[in-house]
Structures are given as structure tokens and as C-alpha cells.
Design brief:
The protein has 334 residues and is an alpha/beta fold. It has a single domain, classed as Aldolase class I (TIM Barrel). The chain has twelve helices and 13 strands. The strands form three sheets. An eight-stranded parallel β-barrel has the order 3-4-7-8-9-10-12-13, surrounded by four helices. A hairpin with a 2-residue loop joins β1 and β2. The longest helix is centred in the middle third of the chain and has 22 residues.
Length: 334
């Protein structure tokens, strides 16, 4: 049994959020005892990734544990979501395990230290790998002014990121998902891509922009987002974030808690959205697969569906750091 397999019963006996923090603090030690990750270099969005398996945003919201998490062998790490101003997020409890289905429901609500302290944490890290930074809006910023929050964050994180993710799909900030609607997304991407051109001149470096979408999208919504992404030359799409659906967890303890569902129950839904974006974008935009990856086989399914990269979150909680190696091996064997 792996070190994580021995530690998991203890972690699962604790309050979910306390266990989350304890696991982050112990990540570096766990990484030392995890399976080695084979080098599987891939070039995506103009970036050289040592392997295509990344950490999804949300685990390290404040960029406080990058060095420890890097010990697990990730090809890239995404931190955040960060907002312009610090905010506490939603009241606890706000994280719930559904172990019968290897699932989690969270309603954190972008709790973070704010972009200034966040950047100080990024600067303090020793790791020099591929770092993605995930940006969002403050909960008390009206939706009609959301673009100002995203622009403020983009300007401040730009110099520190290998790529920047525009999070418009968390279900835990009121009104955020309306930014996926055509007219809202058009205004947001127009502003941010124009700002990116100014930042390219200022920093002499073009940082890719990525949009993170929900799994709860219909065919027309997917096409609309794909059209906007293509029009504004956005570099990538992460498919997907957590779901508001409760299909597959009905009747379980915590199933009716508000928040986003992640893990095994959303795997097929997320993969279908990924396939739909692959069909709509026809290789013009990089795709990052996330949602329900619990094994190398699940990662291979995302690669076959059109993903160039994959990201892990809930799978790490249930399977531990060896999942990174398993997914990287799946890429090599595809």
C-alpha cells in the first residue's frame, strides 16, 4: 500500500476542510514517496510541458504550496482562483465528501488572500516549472462590472504566469456563470485580449489565455463559446469545472448540499463537453481535459476526446499522488 493509502483513513476521519489543509502541508513529503513520473514532453500553446498532467486550480488557492505540490511530478500547476481583493468565501462547512461515488461537493466561493498577497506567494516559490494562474471576480462586484475585476487581475498576474485562466464557470459565485453567455463573453474576451496585446508590448512576452467552462452546457452554448474563443484568439479551453447536476449521487449523504460536484459522477459529462469543443474548434484551440479523472484510463479517455493536457483535483484526494504518474503513463501509451 502507498504512503497515501496509509494516510487516507486518517485524513478522511477529519473535517473535510481541515483534512484539505493538512494534505497540502504534507504534499511535499507525499511527493517524495509517490511513483516517479516519466518525462513525456508536449508543446501546447507555445509552452513546453515536461508532461501533460497538471494540477487543477482550487487546491492551492493562494499559491502557498507550489514547491510542495511540485514534488508530486506535475507537468504544470495551476493556482487560484485569485480575485482583486481578499475575500473569505462562503461560510463553513463548504466542502463535503461523497466517498461512495468518489465525489466532492464544494462551495468555497473564491476564498483567497487577494491578488497582491497572492503574487507575493508566487514570488517566494523556488519551483520554476509551468505555472498557470486562475483569475476571477470578487463576490460583491456586480456582474456588469466583472470585466474590471478580470482585467485588474490579468494585469497584475501577467508577469508571473506561464498562462492565465479566465474562470467563468464556478457555480459558487452568484452570477458568474452568466459570463458564459454570448454577449457577456464577447465583452469579457474583447477587453481581456485587447489588454493582453498591451501587456505583450510591456513585458515582451505573450502569455496564453485560457477559458474554463462548465460541464452543464448545451450544444448551442458550446458552439457560442467556441465561436467567441476562436474570434478573440483565446489559446485554450479547460473542459470542465464542477457541475450543478446531482446525477449519480442521488440519495447519498450531502448530495443535496449547494455547490459544485466533482469526481467520478461528472466524468462522462465533462468528457462529452470536451468532445463537443474538440468538434467545434477543430484543433484551432488547445483543450485541457478535467473532471472525474481517477485513473490512467480516465486520462486516456480525455486524450482520445481531444485534450492535449489534463488536470487533476478530486482524483488526488481519493487516489493520491501516484495518480500523476498513472496519467502521464497513459499519455505515453496512447
Amino acid at each position: 500500500m502507498s504512503l497515501y493509502g496509509l494516510a487516507r483513513p486518517l485524513l478522511f476521519s477529519l473535517d473535510e476542510e481541515n483534512a484539505h489543509q493538512l494534505a497540502l502541508r504534507a504534499a511535499g513529503v507525499a511527493g517524495l514517496f509517490s511513483a516517479p513520473v516519466a518525462r513525456s514532453p508536449v508543446r501546447v500553446m507555445g509552452i513546453e510541458f515536461p508532461n501533460p498532467v497538471g494540477l487543477a486550480a482550487g487546491l492551492d488557492k493562494n499559491a502557498e504550496h507550489i514547491d510542495a505540490l511540485a514534488a508530486m511530478g506535475f507537468g504544470f500547476i495551476e493556482v487560484g482562483t485569485v480575485t482583486p481583493r481578499a475575500q473569505p468565501g462562503n461560510a463553513r462547512p463548504r466542502l463535503f465528501r461523497l466517498p461512495e461515488r468518489e465525489a466532492i461537493i464544494n462551495r468555497f466561493g473564491f476564498n483567497n488572500v487577494g491578488v497582491e498577497a497572492f503574487i507575493a506567494n508566487v514570488r517566494a516559490t523556488r519551483w520554476k516549472g509551468v505555472l498557470g494562474i486562475n483569475i476571477g471576480k470578487n463576490a460583491d462586484t456586480p456582474t456588469e462590472r466583472a470585466v474590471d475585476d478580470y482585467a485588474s487581475c490579468l494585469e497584475q498576474v501577467y508577469a508571473h504566469a506561464a498562462y492565465v485562466t479566465i474562470n467563468i464557470s464556478s457555480p459558487n459565485t452568484k452570477g458568474l456563470r452568466t459570463l458564459q453567455e454570448a454577449h457577456q463573453l464577447e465583452a469579457l474576451l474583447s477587453r481581456l485580449t485587447a489588454l493582453r496585446e498591451q501587456l505583450v508590448e510591456r513585458h515582451s512576452r505573450r502569455v496564453p489565455l485560457v477559458v474554463k467552462v462548465a460541464p452543464d452546457l448545451g450544444v448551442d452554448e458550446i458552439q457560442s463559446i467556441a465561436d467567441a474563443v476562436r474570434k478573440h484568439r483565446v489559446d485554450g479551453v479547460i473542459a470542465t469545472n464542477t457541475s450543478v447536476s446531482r446525477t449519480g449521487v442521488e440519495g447519498l449523504r450531502h448530495a443535496n448540499e449547494a455547490g459544485g460536484l466533482s469526481g467520478t459522477p461528472i466524468r462522462e459529462m465533462a468528457t462529452q463537453v470536451l468532445r463537443s469543443f474538440a468538434a467545434a474548434l477543430k484543433g484551432e484551440v488547445a483543450l485541457i481535459g478535467a473532471g472525474g479523472i481517477m485513473s490512467g484510463r480516465d486520462a486516456a479517455e480525455k486524450f482520445r476526446a481531444g485534450a492535449s493536457l489534463v488536470q487533476l483535483y478530486t482524483g488526488l484526494i481519493y487516489r493520491g499522488p501516484d495518480l500523476v504518474s498513472a496519467c502521464a503513463s497513459a499519455f505515453r501509451a496512447r
